[in-house]
Amino acid sequence: QNSTNPNCTAVPDTTYDYIVIGSGAGGIPIADRLSEAGHSVLLIEKGPPSSGRWNGTMKPAWLEGTNLTRFDVPGLFNQIWADPTGVNCEDLDVMAGCVLGGGTAVNSALWWKPHPSDWDVNFPAGWKNTDMQRLVEKVWQRIPGTAIPSKDGKLYLQQGFDTVSKGLEAAGFKYVVPNDHPDQKNHTYGRSTFFIENAERHGPLSTYLVSAAKRKNFHLMTNTNARRLIRTGGHITGVELECSKEGSVGPGFSGSIKVTPGTGRVVLSAGTFGSAKVLFRSGIGPADQLRIVNNSKIDGPTMIPSDQWINLPVGYNLNDHVGTDIQIAHPDVVFYDFYAAWDKPIASDTEQYLANRTGILAQVAPNLGPMFWQQIKGSDGIVRHLQWQARVEGKTNTSMTITQYVGTGTTSRGRMAITPVLSTRVSVAPYLREAADKEAVVQGIEYIRGVLGQIQNLTWIQPIANQTTTAFVNSIPATPGSRGSNHWIGSCTIGTDDGRTGGKAVVDLDTKVYGTDNLFVVDASIFPGMMTGNPSGVIITVAERAAEKILSLKN
Ligand SMILES: Cc1cc2nc3c(=O)[nH]c(=O)nc-3n(C[C@H](O)[C@H](O)[C@H](O)COP(=O)(O)OP(=O)(O)OC[C@H]3O[C@@H](n4cnc5c(N)ncnc54)[C@H](O)[C@@H]3O)c2cc1C
């Protein structure tokens, strides 16, 4: 044990066949699959436990004495915006979950089967729709999702859904069950699907992690930060670990942990920013970023020497769904104050939830839906997929905010960077840098203004009636704060064009980092381009594919 903190234990003198860094949408499934194949696997998570199932403790008073935390109850999912302390990643300048489960512990649990173009437009050979369909079905067998979270089979406070749906119907939008028809994403609408079961958060934390944890060859460390990789040339021999916040947040581990000599491997699943950061600190990335690490007080004196650096375009090709919020109001819409459910809940609602998992708190805050889709062909000939997400929240008690996301087909890209104190930041925001992306945003809004404008008694909050759509779109800054969707992808792109020799790719088609022989990246950072909907389903499917690829590699 660390002499200064009993919570900080020295790493065991054990070696592992696989060390997986990060327990999010990518990390948990890959750790499960690798351990299922009989390998010893260590999963390292820098954050604390989240869900009650994993001994998480963060909860409001009304959950005391239950096995539930803020991460489990759908009606509390938006609490991350009211109180992110101890939940969000403090080293990033955007929102992400740094707890067991990563984004899948804190997100809104929106759960979409990928559109075939998500693969065919974006991914390289071996990762196309024909390669991935089998795995999509495998993922959905484990995590089917539901559109009706409350256990009594009822949907609560649907006035917002009904109001907007009427307008969509009148304009000829077709109602679909989205995950029954993942390819029908044009002029369609439907209910949102969530990875919720028994009216609690489901997803990787209650499937893949459960099966992994039953195996003797699987090990989990929480509150433990992977500082950097230990490597000799392109061969990783271990990982330097440190207790998160020096052990003050809960029991963690520090010291150097080793992979099985000769055959052991390391998988980075620390997310778009986290994986890139570990690479930078390990001397892998563009020289400008490695020099920042080398000049830092924290890492500089002990960083791997520059003759060992591996020059790869880590941090480039950054993307996020570009979001644009419109807002309407209608007298029929009924608001529910989910934020108040934290400390001033309506007693009958908490009682109903606790007694039989029914009622409004079984539904995801802040009452989402409908979802609708459009496709727009840009002047550059590229089709862009638009997903619209409505929620009952806004300036008044009868308002709805409807966010337009531009997904598959976007061509704008940004960049992330590391700072001298070893935080990361979005150095070039990826939003609307290309004219055709902006055209799609404007055309989409223009069209939907017409559609919703037909709804009787509807009033516009934004854009206001006499504002042109172009002026409205131009008035919103292209920053993560105003446009961000928390769907970051792309800092460690997969591809055949080796980044060491001028290409864009950081990992090869087996997800192995170029220039290394036993280092892999499996998370949203490898995505070459943006998907249609919210990403966690696509990421988990990518992890399934990566497991197949990695397991079939001979050393
Ligand atoms: C508020 C919010 C709402 C969202 N809503 C939805 C939604 O409804 N539906 C949807 O599909 N997607 C949603 N997303 C996005 C989705 O959750 C993410 O895209 C997804 O979780 C990313 O997966 P990942 O594996 O790449 O990284 P993450 O899930 O972010 O996992 C990375 C993990 O690595 C850990 N880590 C990082 N660095 C280190 C290190 N050095 N050592 C050890 N551990 C480390 C982090 O703590 C984290 O647990 C949302 C995201 C947010 C933040």
TrEMBL record:
Cofactor: FAD
Glucose-methanol-choline oxidoreductase N-terminal domain span: 97-120
Binding-site residues for FAD, renumbered to this chain: 99
UniProt KW keywords: FAD, Flavoprotein, Signal
A Pfam match: GMC_oxred_N
GO molecular function, one term: oxidoreductase activity, acting on CH-OH group of donors
Taxonomic superkingdom: Eukaryota
Family listed: Belongs to the GMC oxidoreductase family.
Protein name per its UniProtKB record: FAD/NAD(P)-binding domain-containing protein
